[in-house]
Structures are given as structure tokens and as C-alpha cells.
Amino acid sequence: MQIKVLFFATLRDLAGAKQIQLALSGETVTVDALREELSRRYPQMAENISTASLAVNEEFAFGCDVITDGAEVALFPPVSGGIGQVDLRRPEVFHLPDAPIDHDEVIAAITIPETGAVCLFSGMVRGRTEKDGHIPETDYLEYEAYTPMALSKMKQVAREIRERWPLVQGIAIVQRVGRLKVGHNTVLIACSAAHRDDGCFEAARYGIDRLKEIVPVWKKEIGPSGEVWIEGDYTPRPEDRNEND
Predict the structure, then answer these.
(1) Which ranges in the chain are annotated with CATH 3.90.1170.40?
(2) pLDDT tens for each residue of 20-72
(3) How far is CA 123 from the centre of its chain?
(4) What is the DSSP letter of 157?
(5) Domain 92-240 falls in which CATH fold?
(6) Which member of 169, 179, 193, 205 lies 3.0 to 4.6 Å from 198 by CB, making a disulfide possible if both were Cys?
(7) DSSP helix/strand/coil, 199
(8) How buried is 150 (Cβ within 10 angstroms: 0-12 exposed, 13-18 middle, 19+ buried)?
(9) What pLDDT, in 10s, does the model give residues 130-188?
(10) Residue 228 contacts residue 133 (beta carbons within 8 Å)
(11) What is the predicted pLDDT for the residue at 79?
(12) If DSSP codes are grouped into helix, strand and coil, which group holds residue 159?
């Protein structure tokens, strides 16, 4: 069997390739068996492979899950972490732009005549960080994403928000990719509602926290002292699968 394997962030650097075509014996292979085979072929990153998240055809996969011929498999570390409207009464925005985010444009896209409140979280590039695993001074960040899966998981986050806060009207999840300098905006989560007490504050907080758990986006910090990929500490679980797709 033949499968395509994609490497992201730290694993891409260690493998020295963004993707490989992998020939395996038999008609199927399990996720655990694939990890073992990749660790044998890439001993320099065996530890990273053992802890990496793994997706098959843009959905999380685990242990005994079976991978079949022709599958696309992605390996990536814990995440660091198109604009469209599905319903005129419940507008949604999911986007991975490489240009600055226009906050007013996004807010306008998720408001309807009944909207009376919008809660917005906007992240930005820090120039200095005092935290383990980070470099102390940053010149710029480089963001990358597993684009098709990232967009799918953004939609999943929106569905989870609606299940928890049914009075939320519009939802926007926007994550920039590419090179971003200190002070540039990096991510935007916005939720609209008729009133401020209808869950928009809580929903926006949940949105950014959940994005950093399951949406495959990573950042590399680059500064005078070197560079480092920033990895999260959340390991996806079977219940994080997107059952609606």
C-alpha cells in the first residue's frame, strides 16, 4: 500500500521534508504500527513521533484505527494553539489569511439586525516573553497550518460553541499564517449575540482555548538568540473527532 505522510512544524524540520510517499506491505496498517515504522525510518525524531498528534484524511486517528491505501496522514505536535455564511441568521466566518485581519470587517460579517453585543478576542505577537520553552526576545513569528483540517476544526469549534451557548448569533474564527512581526495581530475570535448576557463573553473565551487544543496551527519564534517551535500541552482524544463531517 502507498500513503502520503505530511510533517508539520518540529517534525517537518527534523524530517527535512514537508511530505513523503510511503510504501508499506499489506493492504492496511494501524496508527500504532505506522508510528513504529516511521520511528524506525526516522530515529532522530522517534520521540517526537511517539507524542505527535496524527490525523488520517483530515481527522484525528488513534492506536488501533486502520489506515488504508491512498490515505493522507499528517503528523504534528500539539497545536500552539474562506469567509462564508452558512445561515443569514447565524453567520459564521472561518479564515486563514496571510494578510492583516480587518476587525471591523469581521464584526460586520457576524452581526445581524438583532445583534446588540459582540465580544472579540484578538491575539498579537509579543516582543518579549518570560516563559519556559520560549525565547526571551522575538523579532517575528512564522505561523503554519494544516489548512483543510484547520478549517474543518474551526467549524467544529463553532458547533461546540452553539451547543453550549445557543443564544450566540454569529461566530468568527480567523487565524493568520505566514511571517508576522511584533505587534501584528495573529488570531481573532468573535461572537455576537442580542445581549451581552447571552453567552458571547464565555463563547469567545471557549473559542480561543479550543482553537489552541484542536485546530492544527503552529508558530515558530525567531529572535536574536535563535528560533524555536512553540508546542502546546494538549493531546487530542477520540472525543475530539469531528463526528459531523
Answers:
(1) 92-240
(2) 999 998 889 999 999 999 999 999 999 899 989 999 999 999 999 999 999 99
(3) 14
(4) H
(5) Aldehyde Oxidoreductase; domain 3 (3.90.1170)
(6) 193
(7) coil
(8) buried
(9) 888 899 999 999 999 999 999 999 999 999 999 999 999 999 999 999 999 999 999 99
(10) yes
(11) 74
(12) helix
CB 93 within 8 A of CB 104: no
**Distant-in-sequence, close-in-space partners of 173: CB < 8 Å, separation ≥ 6:** 93, 94, 95, 154, 157, 158, 188, 189, 207, 211, 215
**C-alpha angle 60-61-63 in degrees, rounded to nearest 5:** 150
The whole-angstrom separation of Cα 161 and Cα 39 is 37
Distance between CA atoms of residues 93 and 175, nearest Å: 11
Nearest to 218 by CA among 43, 39, 7: 7
Amino acid found at 215:
V
125, 138 Cβ separation under 8 angstroms? yes
CATH classification for the domain delimited by 2-76, as one of 3.40.1080.10, 3.10.20.30, 3.40.50.970, 3.40.50.1820 = 3.10.20.30
Strand, coil or helix: 174: strand
Rounded distance between C-alpha atoms, residue 46 and residue 52, angstroms = 10
